[in-house]
Design brief:
With 467 residues, this protein is an alpha/beta fold. 55% of the residues lie in helices and 9% in strands. The protein binds adenosine-5'-diphosphate (ADP) and magnesium ion. Magnesium ion is lined by residues 173-174, 230-231.
């Protein structure tokens, strides 16, 4: 096979040589990887030291580039020393496929970012290329969610249906859902995977109502193999959308199709969500992403640094900066990532190493915002709202259990989330003695271990306060 440019060199690597390279690769990376990733490559030839491959989809090309280009290049250059680089391209001629023209909607192809963007019928939202399992850092707070997501992505018998992932903002719900999509699409390119946000679901639904296309809508949503709905809390209180969602949900579960849902809180905690939907959601596996801990944040930062380094090759980075950021920016991974991206961009612009000084200069706004302190007053307000009592009763003198328990919860949270001393906390609870506060804190510590409801309340409150 020969690729020729009038001004370029002519370099040969025969099909036979490519076959040999493939055999070696199969041994190195294993048959599974080989079948999934290397066999679909179509060798086109070599131009000016660049080996060209046609790939069926951009996704596949990117994946191979990220994961196998080193080993591929090593092998290629062993056979053909002139080869110094590799390029993957999606052939341009394959665009006008018949499939895309008619209804019913086309099947999702692995290169959904391309196909779906152009196709009005298939309502899947585009998937972010960066959100794969490879780039997802696993730690204690998310290991369960990650394991469940992996299992579902492996497919086979539908074991958890639905899989319900929940957790606070920026903890990786969307990332995991995209990762599941990518994985399923890679393993089973014939499956129809539909990923969209609850908001988009509603939008589609309203549009179908308006255009009198409900039959199409129903048919479409009932014909998918895997349905993923992100941020489902959005449809709470939207009655007709919920109704339709419920029917879609049931129809798919009846057909044994996999459903994956995410939300910012547990099904039972979503206000104005119909009870029958809540209980349907709870019938599968419900797992939560806990707030990140220091180790996980540091791990995420380190993995992002590796990605940035590919772009900014000669930047110096002081490890201490990562530790500092992991410590200081604790609520939202998105903010953490943003901080790092900014640091790299800034450092390369001004040609300075990434050290503590640069960090202070460049991130002062983010650091200030993350300094926000939770106050005892906020805690009292949040807790009284949660238990549906008046703030005045929380602070007041009455000792009946209806007030005493929330009061103790608020004391406990004040102790653990603020830097106030026991006497200071006591003063803010209607001038109580510090021993009363101590007693309250101890009581909740005990209950937290014995009573699941208390533990759950605390977790919810802490999240709400830290949000
Ligand atoms: P959510 O949907 O829960 O609000 P996202 O999935 O959008 O959060 O995550 C926010 C950002 O943080 C994304 O860029 C995502 O890649 C990143 N992120 C979150 N958790 C992790 C993780 N464990 N490893 C790597 N990146 C993560
Ligand atoms: Mg999200």
């Amino acid at each position: 096979m020969l690729f020729e440019l009038s001004t370029g060199w002519k370099l040969r690597m025969t099909e036979e040589q490519w076959d040999n390279v493939q055999k070696t690769l199969q041994n190195i990376i294993g048959s599974n990887n080989y079948v999934n990733w290397i066999r679909p490559l179509h060798f086109k030839g070599v131009v000016e030291g660049v080996a060209l491959f046609d790939v069926p989809t951009n996704f596949l090309g990117n994946y191979v580039e990220q994961n196998f280009s080193d080993v591929l290049l090593t092998q290629l250059s062993t056979t053909t020393p002139e080869i110094r680089r590799i390029r993957f391209q999606v052939p341009t001629s394959r665009s006008s496929s018949v499939e895309r023209l008619g209804s019913p909607p086309v099947r999702a192809k692995p290169d959904i970012t391309e196909t779906m963007a152009r196709d009005d019928n298939w309502p899947s939202a585009p998937l972010d290329k960066r959100f794969t399992f490879d780039t997802f850092v696993v730690g204690k707070p998310n290991e369960l969610a990650h394991a469940a997501a992996r299992r579902v992505a492996e497919g086979g018998s539908v074991s958890f249906n639905p899989l319900f992932l929940y957790g606070g903002v920026g903890l990786g719900k969307t990332h995991l859902m995209h990762a599941i999509s990518w994985e399923i699409l890679c393993r089973h390119s014939d499956l129809r995977v539909l990923y969209l946000s609850a908001e988009q679901f509603m939008y589609r639904f309203v549009q179908a109502l308006r255009d009198r296309k409900m039959m199409d809508f129903k048919e479409l949503f009932r014909s998918v193999d895997v349905l993923m709905v992100d941020d489902v809390q959005f449809i709470a209180g939207k009655d007709s959308t919920q109704e339709e969602f419920f029917h879609t949900f049931n129809a798919l579960v009846d057909q044994n199709k996999q459903i994956i849902i995410s939300a910012d809180r547990a099904p039972g905690e979503i206000k104005d969500l119909e009870d029958r939907i809540k209980s349907r959601m709870q019938s599968g596996l419900v797992v939560d992403l806990h707030p990140t801990d220091y180790e996980l944040r540091l791990g995420i930062l380190q993995s992002k640094v590796e990605q940035h380094k590919a772009q900014y090759t000669d930047l110096e980075l002081d490890e201490q900066v990562l530790q500092f950021l992991a410590m200081r920016i604790s609520t939202n991974v998105r903010v953490l990532e943003g901080a790092l991206t900014r640091l790299f961009a800034f450092a390369s612009l001004v040609g300075r190493p990434i050290n503590m000084e640069l960090t202070q200069d460049c991130l002062s706004d983010i650091l200030r915002a993350s300094e926000r302190k939770i106050t005892v007053e906020e805690i009292q307000r949040q807790v009284s709202e949660h238990y549906n009592i008046r703030l005045s009763d929380m602070i007041g003198p009455r000792r009946i259990r209806t007030y005493a328990r929330p009061r103790q919860v608020a004391m406990y949270l004040s102790k653990s989330l603020t830097s106030r001393s026991l006497p200071e906390i006591g003063r803010r609870f209607g001038g109580r003695d510090h021993t009363t506060v101590m007693h309250g804190v101890k009581r909740i510590e005990e209950l937290k271990l014995q009573d699941g409801q208390v533990a759950e309340d605390l977790e919810l409150l802490r999240r709400a306060l830290e949000a």
